[in-house]
From TrEMBL, chain A:
This is Imidazole glycerol phosphate synthase subunit HisF. GO terms for molecular function: imidazoleglycerol-phosphate synthase activity; lyase activity. Pathway: Amino-acid biosynthesis; L-histidine biosynthesis; L-histidine from 5-phospho-alpha-D-ribose 1-diphosphate: step 5/9. The active site is at D11, D130. The gene is hisF.
UniProtKB/TrEMBL annotation, chain B:
IGPS catalyzes the conversion of PRFAR and glutamine to IGP, AICAR and glutamate. The HisH subunit catalyzes the hydrolysis of glutamine to glutamate and ammonia as part of the synthesis of IGP and AICAR. The resulting ammonia molecule is channeled to the active site of HisF. The lineage of its organism: Bacteria, Pseudomonadati, Bacteroidota, Cytophagia, Cytophagales. GO terms for molecular function: glutaminase activity; imidazoleglycerol-phosphate synthase activity; lyase activity. Pathway: Amino-acid biosynthesis; L-histidine biosynthesis; L-histidine from 5-phospho-alpha-D-ribose 1-diphosphate: step 5/9. Keywords: Amino-acid biosynthesis, Cytoplasm, Glutamine amidotransferase, Histidine biosynthesis, Hydrolase, Lyase. It is found in: Cytoplasm. PANTHER family: IMIDAZOLE GLYCEROL PHOSPHATE SYNTHASE SUBUNIT HISH. CDD domains: GATase1_IGP_Synthase (cd01748). Heterodimer of HisH and HisF. It comes from the Bacteria. This is Imidazole glycerol phosphate synthase subunit HisH. The active site is at C77 (nucleophile), H177, E179. SUPFAM superfamilies: Class I glutamine amidotransferase-like. It comes from Dyadobacter luticola.
């Protein structure tokens, strides 16, 4: 049976993880490759590496990092952050990334989704959607945001999710800026509305604070995968414990030990 | 031992090379027919669309070379599909090593296509699954697959039962991605190299 995926996300700047990590057994807690390998060994189903470097020099550092991750890690990984062209995607895939995630560039130029999926295949094109529930002229609506969730667009989240699928996205990474960082649980209603209506997998992100939140997002939220960052980095939740818990609750989970 | 990875217009070959590096197996990445014929093992990997990749193989003549190979050949993902008779993906005539047609997953409520993620395989009957635990999880990304047939040596369930692995004579194939399927995938690759 196809399993629900647990995905740790690593924010990377200049080739190193930026959110603090406190894995005592890591030689270098900032080493993004070593941390990814540890998560893979613990049973993570995929990894996401998000480049938050702004400089040109940093971009080539990131590509070097992608290459080292691909050489080291034997599970799939997605890379994202600042990707805006076919050339960007080509460089990352050739370095060994399995999928790329595009966000602001897709909002600016939706045709990019079509172009990338034709060029590289839908299976490796993830569209990241950052969303926030805000006051609009219609009352309150879920609205797509860019610039790390700081800048509202004119685009409504639910129709945008359908549009990116129709344009050839292979997967959606849905981050609720309302729940992100709260540790109060994923945005279940919105995730369910999007994932329940999509024919492509949806990764839910933002708000995970305990193991039950993952159970909720896979059941009520209808998500195909759950992503989190700091709760894994700070070991508030251990991946083997989380997968054991979800498995005991009857969800299809890849148990590796 | 000489292992060749067949070079053609499919993507994602880099991951396969890194996986072989991790095993410590050397390889040559080439489309040279003599190099391919003289290899001890041939790997035919890739991600891509059936008609585009098949047209390329025809153009360079590899569509005739691959079925004529005598050494162990291991096709993965689109490589496996191209080794079948026909694919519903843009109605493509393939190489016919396995006499079975590749079909699109049926559209059913709640079954998303592509079939993407970790799913378990069962009913093993291949030297490639030696030492692999029953119902092991491997990583799939595909919208098309051959049904269970005479050549099926591992099956998987998603909306319907389909062939996760095929075997006929010296030809081996896997629909999933061994190179990113964790320890299980690595075991299967090592088993192929040991045949």
């Amino acid at each position: 049976m196809l399993t629900k995926r647990i995905i740790p996300c690593l924010d990377v700047k200049d080739g190193r993880t930026v959110k603090g990590v406190n894995f005592v057994n890591l030689r270098d807690a900032g080493d993004a490759v070593e941390l990814g390998a540890l998560y893979a060994a613990q049973g993570a189903d995929e990894l996401v590496y998000l480049d938050i470097t702004a400089t040109i020099d940093g971009r080539s550092t990131f590509i070097d990092l992608v290459r080292r991750v691909a050489q080291t890690v034997n599970i799939p990984f997605t890379v994202g952050g600042g990707i805006s062209s076919i050339a960007d995607v080509s460089a990352l895939l050739h370095a060994g990334a399995d999928k790329v995630s595009i966000n602001s560039a897709a909002v600016r130029n939706p045709d990019l989704i079509n172009e990338l999926s034709l060029e590289f295949g839908s299976q490796c094109i993830v569209v990241a959607i950052d969303t926030r529930y805000i006051a609009t002229e219609q009352g309150h609506e879920h609205v797509v945001h860019t610039h790390g969730g700081r800048k509202a667009t004119e685009i409504r989240t639910i129709p945008w999710a359908k549009e990116v699928e129709e344009r050839g996205a292979g997967e959606i990474l849905l981050t609720s800026m309302d729940t992100d960082g709260t540790k109060a649980g994923f945005a279940l209603e919105l995730t369910s509305a999007i994932s329940g209506n999509a024919n492509i997998p949806v990764i839910a992100s933002g708000g995970a604070g305990n193991m039950e939140h993952f159970y909720d997002v896979f059941t009520a939220g209808k998500a195909d995968a759950g992503l989190a960052a700091s709760i894994f980095h700070f070991r508030e939740i251990d991946i083997p414990d989380l997968k054991g818990y979800l498995n005991e609750k009857g969800l299809p989970i890849r148990m590796t030990r | 031992m000489k292992t060749v990875i067949i070079k053609y217009n499919a993507g994602n070959v880099q991951s396969v090379m890194y996986a072989l590096d991790r095993i410590g197996a050397g390889y040559i990445y080439t489309d040279d027919v003599e190099e391919i014929r003289s290899a001890d093992k041939v790997i035919f990997p890739g991600v891509g669309e059936a008609s585009t990749t098949m047209n390329y193989l025809r153009k360079v003549g590899l569509d005739k070379v691959i079925p004529s190979l005598k050494q162990p050949v291991f096709g993965t993902c689109i490589g496996m599909q191209l080794m079948c008779r026909f694919s519903e993906e843009n109605n493509t005539e393939c190489m016919g090593i396995f006499d079975v047609d590749v079909k699109r997953f049926p559209a059913e409520a709640g079954m998303k296509v592509p079939h993407m993620g970790w799913n378990n395989i069962s009913n093993y009957a291949s030297p490639l699954t030696y030492g692999v635990p029953d119902n092991a999880y491997v990583y799939f990304v595909h919208s098309f697959a051959p049904p269970v047939c005479d050549y099926t040596v591992a099956s998987c369930q998603y909306a319907t039962s389909f062939s996760a692995m095929l075997h006929r004579d010296n030809f081996y194939a896997a629909q999933f991605h061994c190179e990113i399927s964790g320890d299980v995938g690595q075991q299967i690759m090592e088993n192929f190299l040991k045949i």
